[in-house]
Amino acid sequence: MTNIKIKAVDIYHAEKSISNEFYINHFKEQGKDISHFLEIMGRKDRFVIDNERENSLTMGIEASNRVLKKAGLTGKDLDMLVFTSQVPEYIIPTNALLVHHAINGKENMVVYDMNANCAGMTIAVEQVSRYMMSNPHMKRALVVGSDNFSLLSSPEDTMTYSNFGDSSSAIILEKTEEDTGFIDSIVDVHSDTDNRTCVVYPEKGLSQTIKGNGQGKSMLWIPFDGRFVLPQVYKMFEKVLERNNLKIEDIDHFCLSQFALTLLQEIQDHYHIPEEKIIFSGDRYGYTGTSSPFMAFHEGIDSGKINRGDKVLFWTIGGGYQLATMLFKY
Predict the structure, then answer these.
(1) Hey, what long-range contacts does 64-67 have (CB within 8 A, 24 or more apart)?
(2) Of 31-45, 205-219, 227-241, 292-306, which gets the smallest average pLDDT?
């Protein structure tokens, strides 16, 4: 039976690390106390671009080179490359094409960008896995997720300025006959699309911004309580487990959205999941958007918690909102 396994994963983050103290003092000058907010989100440090050299593309290229080196592969060994970002450095040409050039990818290779906001990389891994299973000519694929969130953050907005970090993750998927790899997934827009305007960039749309009819420097973020998605999250978890004859206890590790620590804690409490099974990396990297669950996945492997043969459940949320749950045997 043909399966799609995760051959390797690696990350890259911006050079500069900033602790909570900077943001607490920054907002104190505006008359705001964000200490409790940072505690709820689970933040301690985050990496933020503060130079002209780095952006979503350069971070994605660096993560790609790192994962190729880790896997003992070159760009010539890949059949497919997907770049996911909600803060792409370029609209034309695709960032994936520029990554392809940087890693010296081969000809006759599927290369494209994808944007599903913060759910982008998870959905890309899901779709690429399913496509590889159905296409006999696809042996290996590279999926890259990279967001330069600080580029869109307003120094007056607590959520975007103090919560986000700039990082990238890259993962290599490989076709195998081993009893491992992709198991199942659910990607849905249950999304209450009435909330589609809570997180917007550019606020007035690209056409109006270019025409000068709307400011396009910062992301519009209208505060919302992310816990409203939890009933649907539980339904997705139970559905994907039931149709694969598994129980929550059979999952070895959970690599979930790192958007807010409280969301992870509510999921943990709901299912009585042991703390060691929940991988949280948001205290080190901040909220990194599209790469978020894979920053946690890399953290789990790097720390020795996640090992080959472990069942890993991924989950994330994209603005608007759409939810993605994916099950892998690593």
Answers:
(1) 64/99, 64/102, 64/103, 64/142, 64/144, 64/170, 65/102, 65/103, 66/10, 66/11, 66/12, 66/170, 67/8, 67/9, 67/10, 67/142, 67/170, 67/171, 67/172
(2) 205-219
Query: Mean pLDDT score of the chain, rounded to an integer?
Result: 94
**How far, CA to CA in Å, does 219 sit from each of 20, 92, 95, 156, 169?**
21, 21, 21, 11, 23
Q: Tell me the residue length of the chain.
A: 330
Domain 3-178 and domain 183-329, same fold? Reply is yes
Least confident piece of the model among 43-57, 128-142, 208-222: 208-222
Segments making up each domain of the chain, as ranges: 3-178, 183-329
Q: At what angle do helices 95-102 and 56-71 cross, to 10 degrees?
A: 40
CATH 3.40.50.720 fits 3-178, yes or no: no
Tell me the C-alpha distance between 46 and 164, whole Å. Answer: 7
The values of phi and psi at residue 230, to 5°, are -60, -40
* pLDDT given for residue 57 in this prediction: 98
User: What is the CATH topology of the domain spanning 183-329?
Assistant: Peroxisomal Thiolase; Chain A, domain 1 (3.40.47)
Question: Hey, what are 128's tokens?
Answer: 């690429």
